[in-house]
Write a structure and sequence with these properties.
This is 3-hydroxyacyl-CoA dehydrogenase. This protein folds into three domains: 256 residues, 2-enoyl-CoA Hydratase, Chain A, domain 1 (Alpha-Beta Complex); 179 residues, NAD(P)-binding Rossmann-like Domain (Rossmann fold, 3-Layer(aba) Sandwich), CATH 3.40.50.720; 218 residues, Orthogonal Bundle (N-(1-d-carboxylethyl)-l-norvaline Dehydrogenase, domain 2), CATH 1.10.1040. The protein starts with 5 loop residues before the first strand and ends with a helix. The protein is globular and about 90 Å long. It is of the alpha/beta class. The longest helix has 21 residues. It binds (S)-3-Hydroxyhexanoyl-CoA.
């Protein structure tokens, strides 16, 4: 028998049920058992008039224990526990602080009243784990908020603050100061008023507008882009309009059971833990990070400005360096625009932005960075420029200060070699817009020491990024995989698919955008210039698709010029362009290529196989250390659908023999320069998965 993690304490005629299961009071079997026992004890104790449910530590219950999912039922179940709480003929007040989430909020909804600390938050984030609330959340919440609001809250999985919880009817009172004392006082008021003890499940569902609910479900379905849980959650909430509480609960349970066993939920649970595991790099446990108080940034262009905002948003002092007063002014304008945009979107108030802007200083020349603990370089992508800059920074910064480059593909070993402190040089590769995108690749060069890596990882965590450790190679983890896929996408165009077919297949897979729409958005000219620079050194035997060059030769550089792979003359959305179609067809004729037909599934299989194959190479070369590192890069930097877990996780689910077959089919179809990854072949042929490989290491 495990330890019981909910105890009963007494305050005169009030019982306190105290849940104490650090770190987040997850509803493990021992907590559920404790809650059941507490209710039985309180029911039997005639001296107790009512109870307050409160949690020890930093938060109210943050939900079911996700680690228990998939391990078979452990009695008592959460729905039964909450049902037992509702049978109590004495009122229970839930006292919420921190984050009352998922099963935690469901427990609170099983109480008769809820008081919430002003800083508290509530939410039902189950859909983000591929499930629906499975302990009455979809049946009780609408009885407090109305169906429409419940659909909105449950399908978005978003948390709301105390004031909103009060306004929506979820909380009965917002309190400041001593939460337990306030909850007891609230309960005493209710007891002395002699209010009837009515459980939430016995309350009526308010006015129902079936047409509006139908529209809401349709909207949720569209937004979910293939993810099942939000749609099922909306349907379960909608059941409250037509089913009794008991029947609604039975339906909710059935949907929960079905979803918890689904691949989507497995993938989302994997992503939840991988997101937390990714920055805990094995081998670095004992490394000491350098304390970083002041960050320096070289270059106040788009990237540098975004990076500065990311640090300032986290409360850090930032000194930026530019080459001239003019460039510094332009940088200040960029930062002002970023903040003005945040205000316009309602994310920040004017006061908040003013405070953050004050944290950023922009100076001319490098000397202003002398006191920085860590400097991020975000200048033009040119190896000689960066080497020169690092040599100069090395002479200015204090010994021990960390030098990081934001390069996307240049050789960091070469950059580090220009300094006298290669052990303190690393890559910090942000993704644009740097203040928004969650991914940060921390790149360890040959001589980077543990302290430097730990410093960069810790800093990333402080600014709310998902940091993934990568080794040095062209493109690191993300851009290397993306480049491999981009090449295959171009082969597909040459072989018979059109950009719009590929983009449609990719968005149907769950990506927010297809590759050709992405190129047009980011601009085609930079990659074109790069191709021209590399033309002389390109392997003449490697397959090369000239279509992107032809498009650029027409001055079509993407959305910013009104045309690229698509036409944007109508404003808004990318429109397929007949002249591009003709160009593609003429190009195929010229090369003697007979176009084939590719279904959306063919395209999706090729995309996934390409990513997995390159991911396997990256693992074998120790550029990424764990499959989850590759997955987190693709999830947070490239929009790989979270409900698929990432390419490596999904490959294990699909089965590596199938992935290998897809890779071989692509090689046979003519992808010169593309070969099955030896690691993929080895694992597929020995019946192993990437997860097995990670475990064996
Ligand atoms: C649910 O409730 C289903 C029910 O409807 C129905 C059931 C029948 N379980 O995030 P942190 C671990 S589904 C197990 O770094 P923070 C986490 O892995 C659940 N473990 O802290 C980490 O471990 P480690 C619905 C959990 O302060 C440690 O706790 N609820 C759980 O940044 C600290 O976590 C949710 O989806 C859990 N539920 O954020 C809420 N939660 O130290 C999920 C956390 O080994 N949790 N851990 O890496 C969160 O969103 C955040 O953890 C929270 C705290 C906001 C609470």
């Amino acid at each position: 028998m495990s330890e019981i993690l909910a105890r009963v304490e007494h305050r005169d005629d009030i019982a306190l049920i105290v849940v104490d299961n650090p770190p987040v009071n997850a509803l493990s079997q021992a907590v559920r058992e404790g809650l059941n026992r507490a209710v039985v004890e309180i029911a039997a104790d005639e001296s107790v008039k009512g109870a307050v449910l409160v949690c020890a530590g930093r938060t109210f219950i943050a939900g079911a224990d996700i680690k228990e999912f998939g391990k078979g039922p452990l009695e008592p179940s959460l729905p039964d526990t909450i049902a037992t709480m509702e049978t109590l003929q004495k009122p229970i007040v839930a006292a919420l602080h921190g984050t009352a989430l998922g099963g935690g909020l469901e427990v609170a909804l099983g109480c008769h009243y809820r008081v919430i600390d002003r800083g508290g938050q509530v939410g039902l984030p189950e859909v983000t784990l591929g499930i629906i609330p499975g302990a009455g959340g979809t049946q009780r919440l609408p009885r407090l908020t109305g169906i429409e609001q419940a659909i909105e809250l449950i399908t978005s999985g978003k948390r709301i603050g105390a004031e909103k919880a009060l306004a929506f009817g979820i909380a009965d009172k917002v309190v400041d100061g001593d939460l337990t004392a306030a909850a007891i006082a609230f309960l005493k008021e209710k007891l002395s008023a002699g209010e009837a003890v009515v459980p939430v499940s016995a309350r009526p569902v308010g006015k129902v507008d079936q047409t509006r609910i139908g529209e809401q479900i349709a909207k949720v379905t569209k937004k979910a882009r293939g993810q099942l849980s939000p749609v099922k959650a909306a349907e379960s909430v909608a059941n409250t309009a037509t089913l009794s509480f008991a029947d609604g609960m039975a339906r909710e349970r059935a949907i929960f059971e079905e979803l918890v066993a689904s691949d989507q939920s497995k993938a989302l649970r994997y992503a939840f833990f991988a997101e937390r595991a990714v920055s805990k790099v094995p081998g670095l446990e004992d490394a000491e990070a350098k304390e970083v108080r002041t960050v320096g940034i070289v270059g106040a262009g788009t990237m540098g400005s975004g990076i500065a905002v990311a640090f300032a948003d986290a409360g850090m002092r930032v000194i930026m360096s530019e080459m001239s007063g003019e460039a510094a002014d332009a940088g200040r304008d960029r930062i002002d625009r970023i903040y003005a945009d945040q205000v316009q979107r309602g994310r920040l108030t004017e006061d908040m932005t003013a405070e953050r802007q004050m944290r950023i200083t922009i100076a001319v020349g490098l000397e202003a960075l002398a006191g920085a603990d860590l400097v991020v370089e975000a200048v033009f992508e040119d190896l000689d420029v960066k080497k020169d800059l690092f040599a100069r920074l090395d002479g200015i910064l204090a010994p021990g200060a960390v030098l990081a480059t934001n390069t996307s593909y240049l050789d960091i070993d070469a950059i580090a070699a220009a300094t006298s402190r290669p052990d303190s040089v690393c890559g910090m590769h942000f993704f644009s817009p740097a203040n928004v995108m969650k991914l940060l690749e921390v790149v360890r060069a040959a001589k980077t020491d543990d302290r430097t890596v730990k410093t960069a990882l810790d800093l990333a965590r402080r600014i709310g990024k998902v940091a993934v450790l990568s080794g040095v190679c062209d493109g690191f983890i993300g851009n290397r995989i993306w480049a491999a896929w981009r090449k295959q996408a171009e082969f597909l165009v040459e072989d018979g698919a059109y950009p719009e077919d590929i983009d449609a297949a990719v968005t149907a897979f769950g990506f927010p955008m297809g590759p050709f729409a992405v190129y047009d958005l980011s601009g085609l000219d930079i990659a074109w210039a790069q191709r021209k620079r590399h033309a002389a050194t390109r392997d003449p035997a490697a397959r090369y698709v000239e279509i992107p060059d032809r498009i650029c030769e027409l001055g079509r550089f993407g959305r910013k010029t009104g045309a690229g792979w698509y036409d944007y003359s109508g404003g808004g959305a990318p429109a397929p362009d007949p002249s591009i179609r003709q160009m593609i067809e003429a190009h195929r004729d010229e090369k003697g290529i007979v176009p084939q037909h590719f279904t959306a599934e063919d395209i999706q299989r090729r995309m996934r196989a390409t990513m997995v194959n390159e991911g396997a190479n990256i693992l074998a070369e120790k550029i990424a250390h764990r499959p989850l590192d590759v997955d987190m890069v693709m999830l947070f930097g490239y929009g790989y659908p979270r409900w698929r877990g990432g390419p490596m996780f999904e490959a294990d689910l699909v089965g590596l023999p199938q992935i290998l077959e897809d890779v071989r089919e692509m090689c046979a179809a003519g992808g010169h320069g593309f070969a099955p990854s030896p690691l993929l072949v080895e694992l597929a042929e020995s019946g192993k998965s990437f997860a097995d490989w990670a475990e064996d290491k």
